[in-house]
Structures are given as C-alpha cells and as structure tokens.
Amino acid sequence: MKHAPVVLTLPHMLGVAEEYTALIDGMDPDPERHQIFVDVEPYTGTPLNGGKRVQFNMFLRRIDAIKLTDRLQPTLFPVIWIDEGIALNEDMVKLIDDSLMKVLSLLDVVQWALIGVGLLLAVLMPTVYFVKRCRGDSSRSVSPAVTATTSAASLSTVAGVTGERNK
Prior knowledge:
Pfam families: CD36. The chain is α+β, with helices and mostly antiparallel strands. The protein has helices at residues 18-21, 31-34, 90-135, 152-159, and strands at 7-9, 37-40, 47-60, 75-87.
C-alpha cells in the first residue's frame, strides 16, 4: 500500500491505522458524519437519502534529490475530500406516501380481515358438519324410487342384481 500513488479513505481517515494518522494534525474522524450511508424505505427499497464521502490521500516520502525532504517521515497526507449526497424532495416523498404507503396500510387491514374470515370458516364449517351429522339429518338421503316408467333392467341394476342366474 505504501507504493500506491493515491490512497482512498473515508474522510478524516476514519478507520485508518494510527501509524498513518499520527503525523497529521486536525484529523477528527466521526463515524456519524464521515461514513457512507443510505436511508432506504423498507417496503419498496427506494433510497430516500444517501451520502458518499471519500478522501483522496497521497504518501509523502523523503526524496533524496530534494534536500527539503531530508527529515520528512513517510506519512499519508490528505489531498481532497469529496462529499456527494442525495435526498428525495418533498414532492417525491409525498408521492411515495400517497401512492404506496396508504395502499400498503389498506392491504394490511384487508390481510388481517381475510385471515380472520379464514379462521372463522375453519372453525364454523366442521362445527356445522358435525352438528348436522349428530342430528341424523336424513332429509338429504337418497333412495331409489320405483315408478311406472322404471324398467325391470334398471331395477335390477339399482338393486345390485346382475341378471345372471346361479346354476
């Protein structure tokens, strides 16, 4: 790493080893202010707010041909700090709230209502079945009726007779 022309770090060299920051005054890394962050809406994954913060650094070293650098200790020196960010404006946040969040709230209510109806039916239907069965409700039983138009062949089929004689 010491031979890289440019080294990319977080601002104020947040997270860099002490050996690189010991010779630089004014480095005050604060994780709250200097980290990369993204705030995401949990249901849709829409980024609401975000920031990318980086710092470009160069190694300062002694150069034999330049007498001024004789006493220079190798150190990592900050050159430029870039802070980019984005935040949704009020109109976009309102659009997400109106078109999505209200629908999701309504769907949440509908979901629990349908679960309640399903549970009610799961309890009610077996209860109705067993109550009707215990009463001996025979009004639904079907028995074959003999009418004037019924043929002998159809009666033997209904009665379970195949028409073959035992010999």
